[in-house]
Amino acid sequence: MNNKIRKASHKDTYRLASSLARAFDNDPVINWLVRKDKKRTHGMEILFQSCIADLCLRHEHVLTTEDYTGGALWYPPGTSEAGYVRQFTLIPKMITAVGWTGLLRLALAMQEMKKDHPRERYYYLQFIGVVPENQGKGTGKALMKPILDICDREKCGAFLQSSKEANIPFYRSCGFVVTKKIFPGKNSPPLWLMWRSPKK
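Given the sequence above, the corresponding structure tokens read:
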């Protein structure tokens, strides 16, 4: 196992997306959103490829381990909103990920999730994941540290939406506190909104 963390580039997209798809395989909210048929595995990988290459990489805050067993997708302050043109260009990939029937559910869920983003300046952690066999070995903390250090230096907050109640203690150990529990859609699993104030 290699916990050395570095910034990802476009050449890392496919391997990192594959690992994140494995990490989120049993995630309640992801499984509520993605398709349930035989194309599910491919759809999961396309979802994470798009999040990495089409959205997050241009902000230069995608982190990966050297062996691709873990990754984190961070957005710096003021960058987490994708414009309508960019959203429109991603529709074919999102159909691959969630199916035609899931497209409206995804759009409404994203809209609902945006409502509760903080008004303060913050770094947004969209996804952090480690492949199952490497979980509990410090990789998650290693992926958190570089950006949380920046938050502390810049006196800036950090924000995330946890899709698993079991992960809340981990985030708390990194300085986050739960601020709200929401349901991003009809019959959806909950999300726990979490905020971290910069350390003084």
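The first helix runs from residue 13 to 23. Try to locate this feature in the token string yourself.
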